[in-house]
Amino acid sequence: MAAIVEVDYIWKNGALVPWAEATTHVLTHALHYGTAVFEGVRCYKGENGSAGFRLFEHMERLVQSGKIIMMDIPFTAEQLTEAALETIRANKLEECYVRPLAFRGYGSMGVNPTAAPVDVIIAVWPWGDYLGDTALKEGVSVAISTWRQRSVNALPGAVKSTASYLNSGLANIEAVGHGYSEAVLLNENGYIAEGSGENIFIVKNGIISTPPLSDGCLEGLTRDSIITIARDLGYEVQERSLVRTELYTADEVFFTGTAAEVTPINAVDRRRIGSPGSVTLALQERFFNIAKGRVPEYDHWLAKV
Ligand code: PPE
């Protein structure tokens, strides 16, 4: 939960428009049927100026989400990358969150979306620590949700659709209502899927594990970054199904995500975890150094503003 910080411009269908004019009709198809796909990207201020972290890959994932739901986005990932950079520059932001959204707009109603136009916006605004001010240092407490992750044959993890987030929202409302910071969802088979807005990792006896995509999680770019960084640092990383009790007995547990970055988890269902542990903190430090342009080998992950 975070209040919106207003800035000057939003990019809409190819041009910048003043923030207050970036509106849509109440009969917008996506409002009624969840027919929208989106992304979240962070832009960090680094050693050599500001840069969007894996911005191009996020735009590729947006186009791919559109493809899955039969929605042709009328811009390429290259064009959307350039548009996002232009929007950051126009708003004179050094650090921000970037929210591209492609949605079925105004023009037809009914479940079948194909006659509705496709509108695309890119908004940017400052967004601080996702799970609270102390989350990155001290960690957060989580609960296993009574809501299950939507099945891969209902709304697959590979599509980052607004519709999927009703499922996330139900889980998050429950967990926060019970005093936890975030929910973790099990899939239909009872294996760990992900957090309501994050991928999840455990560390046990020095080995790092995270659920495979086949267990229904989003193919997170932060997840991919952490797997790469961890292997480059010499850790063994396994993508394998995890059961709930493995979270309780792990040496360390942490979330990854664009908004959540690398957030330690310090308790699961009120079982204390030893984290923030040394592996989590080492990965978190490396992640921020890379995102802030301090590690030249990973410069290809940065799209310079
Ligand atoms: N799983 C889910 C369900 C998810 O929402 C996110 C990102 C991830 C995994 C991690 O993906 P990635 O950002 O590529 O590493 N969630 C986005 C939206 C959060 C929001 O509340 O809005 C995000 O972090 O931007």
Characterise this structure:
This protein has 305 residues and is α+β, with helices and mostly antiparallel strands. The chain contains 8 helices and 17 strands. A hairpin with a 2-residue loop joins strand 11 and strand 12 (207-210). The two termini are 27 Å apart. The model has no long low-confidence stretch (mean pLDDT 96).
Question: What order do the helices and strands come in, and which of them pair?
Answer:
Layout: E1 9-12, E2 15-18, H1 29-33, E3 36-38, E4 41-46, E5 49-53, H2 55-68, H3 77-90, E6 96-104, E7 118-125, H4 135-138, E8 140-144, H5 164-177, E9 182-186, E10 192-195, E11 199-204, E12 207-210, H6 221-232, E13 237-239, H7 244-249, E14 252-257, E15 261-268, E16 271-272, H8 278-291, E17 302-304
Parallel strand pairs: 8-9, 8-15, 12-13
Antiparallel strand pairs: 1-2, 1-7, 3-6, 4-5, 4-6, 5-17, 6-7, 9-10, 11-12, 11-14, 14-15, 15-16
Helix pairs in contact: 2-3
Bound molecules: ligand PPE.
Brief sketch in words of this structure:
With 305 residues, this protein is an alpha+beta fold. Helix content is 27%, strand content 28%.
Report the count of strand segments.
Answer: 17
SSE string, helices as H and strands as E: EEHEEEHHEEHEHEEEEHEHEEEHE
What is Rg? 19 Å
Determine the N-to-C terminus distance: 27 Å
How many helices? The count is 8
List the uncertain runs: none
Beta-strand share of residues? 25-35%
Helical amount: 25-40%
Mean pLDDT: 96
**SS-derived structural category:** alpha+beta
Biggest beta sheet attributes: 9 strands, mixed
Bound molecules: ligand PPE
Shape by Cα distribution: globular
